């Protein structure tokens, strides 16, 4: 591994005399070691007596590349590919023609099998970082049969005559007439809108989705807000996630369980109604801040005649946690990408329920939250840990983590 240093402009050379800043625009030969949270490949370059990490978008594991340093941070660098010297055995031509420009899919350039391996590696590394002493078995990843045409909802941007997605780290639009990861009816709607939308001088954002009646609809997000956009975008894998979560809870609780389950960040009831159907005597208190989601869920409660069994609360989770009793038997969490607030985890740890089911869409936040939980309540152990490949062609994934108090 070596490099050829290019002379940067004077204003860069003189800027605080930083060793890393002097590397801006320099070229290097590197090998991609692994992929990172955020989707970039990870390589290292020598700087005096140490090595410095470089993050390289649109790379593939084991690629040998010539790169140019494009951005300098305090302790790491970003690079862009100048030349693929020796492509990885996992590398492929992306099925989408704008994959290298678009900020949507970060991993189309390598195989689905390697995508799964990298996701498992990411989760293991994060748990090693946050929970180095904790023992667990990682169950086989649940994969999708539909690695393209799986999204039932997308958001596109419209400015002037362009309809598409933003470029990575940019507000410049990559024009599209198709999106291979969207379900077929949505792909057809994209093509239609790209022909029929009138030019606009102001940036607009549209959601295109398949609604509950199976029809495609689109609307200006500015007019309707996020709506029901917190529902899962991959129906097939979401169903497998719900089924596996219920299966694991059935291991913990008898079917005639008549106690309370507290569900935090419940959305519109993705897990709620499946739980109520299996555990007929279980009482469920579900908490969600978005009033449109809780309204939709409450209508289902009425329609299914579950008023005595299921109650939805429209409030902040942290407010509910401190002003309402939580279950001492089982708590289910499905927080947003930011994870749980520390006070929520602290409150749960103080309540010390027998079981916790945590569904996570960001593995870093999962590791952080479980580490805090175990720091406060060391008696918990991981009973089940499993990745669900909800978002093929990207670095994102869902994780199911079941924790129980040690006997």
The largest sheet has its strands arranged as 8-19-20-18-17-14-15-16
Question: Structural class, please?
Answer: alpha/beta
CATH architecture of the largest domain: 3-Layer(aba) Sandwich
- The span between the termini is 52 Å
According to CATH, the homologous superfamily of the largest domain is Vaccinia Virus protein VP39
Task: Note the beta-strand portion.
Answer: 25-35%
Q: What is the molecular shape?
A: globular
Number of helices: 10
**CATH-defined fold name of the largest domain:** Rossmann fold
How many separate domains? 3
Q: What's the quick description here?
A:
By secondary structure, this protein is of the alpha/beta class.
Structure description:
By secondary structure, this protein is an alpha/beta fold. It folds into three domains: 84 residues, Nucleic acid-binding proteins (OB fold (Dihydrolipoamide Acetyltransferase, E2P), Beta Barrel); 205 residues, 3-Layer(aba) Sandwich (Rossmann fold), CATH 3.40.50; 72 residues, no CATH class. The chain has ten helices and 20 strands. Helix 2 packs parallel to helix 10 and helix 9 packs across helix 10. The protein is globular and about 65 Å long.
Describe the secondary-structure layout.
Layout: E1 3-4, H1 10-13, E2 27-31, E3 34-35, E4 41-47, E5 50-56, E6 64-72, E7 76-86, H2 112-130, E8 138-142, E9 153-160, E10 162-166, E11 173-175, H3 184-196, E12 200-210, E13 216-220, H4 221-224, H5 235-252, E14 260-264, H6 272-278, E15 283-288, H7 291-303, E16 310-314, H8 317-323, E17 330-333, H9 342-351, E18 355-360, H10 363-376, E19 380-388, E20 398-405
Parallel strand pairs: 5-7, 8-19, 14-15, 14-17, 15-16, 17-18
Antiparallel strand pairs: 1-2, 2-6, 3-4, 4-5, 6-7, 9-10, 9-12, 10-11, 12-13, 18-20, 19-20
């Amino acid at each position: 591994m070596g490099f050829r240093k290019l002379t940067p402009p004077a204003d860069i050379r003189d800027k605080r005399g930083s060793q890393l800043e002097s590397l801006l625009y320099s070229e290097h030969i590197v090998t991609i070691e692994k992929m990172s949270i955020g989707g970039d490949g990870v390589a290292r370059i020598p700087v005096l007596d140490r090595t410095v990490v470089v993050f390289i978008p649109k790379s593939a594991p084991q690629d040998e590349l010539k790169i140019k340093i494009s951005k300098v941070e305090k302790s790491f660098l970003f690079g862009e590919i100048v030349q693929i010297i020796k492509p990885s055995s996992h590398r492929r031509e992306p099925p989408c023609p704008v994959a290298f420009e678009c900020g949507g899919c970060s991993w189309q350039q390598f195989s689905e099998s390697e995508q799964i391996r990298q996701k498992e590696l990411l989760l293991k590394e994060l748990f090693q970082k946050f929970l180095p002493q904790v023992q667990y078995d990682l169950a086989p990843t649940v994969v999708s049969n539909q690695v393209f045409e799986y999204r039932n909802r997308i958001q596109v941007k419209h400015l002037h005559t362009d309809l598409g997605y933003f470029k990575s780290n940019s507000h410049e639009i990559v024009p599209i007439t198709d999106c291979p990861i969207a379900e077929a009816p949505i792909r057809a709607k994209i093509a239609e809108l790209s022909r029929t939308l009138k030019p606009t001088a102001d940036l607009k954002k549209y959601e295109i989705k398949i609604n509950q009646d199976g029809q495609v609809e689109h609307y200006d997000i500015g007019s309707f807000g996020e709506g029901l956009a917190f529902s899962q975008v991959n129906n097939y894998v979401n169903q497998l996630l719900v089924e596996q979560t219920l299966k694991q809870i059935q291991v913990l609780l008898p079917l005639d369980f008549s106690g309370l389950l507290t569900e935090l960040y419940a959305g519109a009831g993705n897990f709620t109604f499946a739980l109520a159907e299996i555990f007929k005597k279980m009482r469920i208190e579900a908490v969600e801040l978005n009033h449109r989601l809780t309204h939709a869920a409450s209508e289902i409660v009425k329609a299914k005649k579950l008023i005595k069994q299921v109650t939805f609360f429209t409030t902040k989770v942290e407010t509910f946690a401190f002003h309402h009793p939580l279950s001492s038997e089982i708590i289910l969490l499905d927080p947003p990408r930011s994870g749980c607030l520390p006070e929520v985890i602290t409150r749960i740890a103080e309540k010390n329920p027998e079981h916790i089911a945590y569904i996570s869409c960001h593995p870093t936040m999962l590791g952080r939250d479980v580490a805090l939980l175990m720091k406060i309540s060391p008696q918990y152990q991981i009973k089940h840990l499993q990745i669900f490949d909800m978002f093929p062609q990207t670095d994102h994934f869902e994780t199911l983590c079941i924790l129980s108090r040690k006997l």
